[in-house]
Amino acid sequence: MDRKNVEVIIRINSVDTEFCLEDLKAVMPYRPDIIMLPKSSTAQDILTVSKYIGKLEKKLGFEKNTVKMMPLIETALGVENAYRIASSTDRVTAIFLGGEDLSADFAFVSFHVISLLYFNYNVICFGRYFFKTGSGMLAQRADKALGQRLAL
What we know:
The chain is an alpha/beta fold. Helices cover 38% and strands 10% of the residues.
C-alpha cells in the first residue's frame, strides 16, 4: 500500500488491560507511524509500551524508534503526570487530551468545554514545550450557549 501522504495512527487498548500487548503484536507488522495509547496516567505506562514496541521493531527489522507514540491523557492522574509522560521517551511525538474519558474520571455530570479548560491548558503547554505544537482538544461538542466550536 502506498502511504506517501498518509500518517497511520493506531489506537490500541490501554496498558492496564490484557489486550495491550496483543494489540501491538497484531498491528506492528503494518509499520504504523504512531501508536496512540489511551488512559496514559504515568510515565511508566509509556515506558512499558515503548519497551515492547522496541522489541517488536527489532524482531520485525525496523529501524530503532520507527514507531512513535501519542499518549492520550484521559485521567486526573494523567493530567498531573503530563510533563513526565511527555518527557518519558523520545518515542513520544505528541500528547492528546481525551475530554470525554477525563470528564468521566472526574464524574462530571455532563461534558462541558469550560470544565476542561485547566486540563486542556496543561496538555497544550506540555505539547508546545516538547513538540513545538499544541496537542490539545478540539471541543467534541459545540457549546450550545455560545453557538460555536472552541478550538483549544
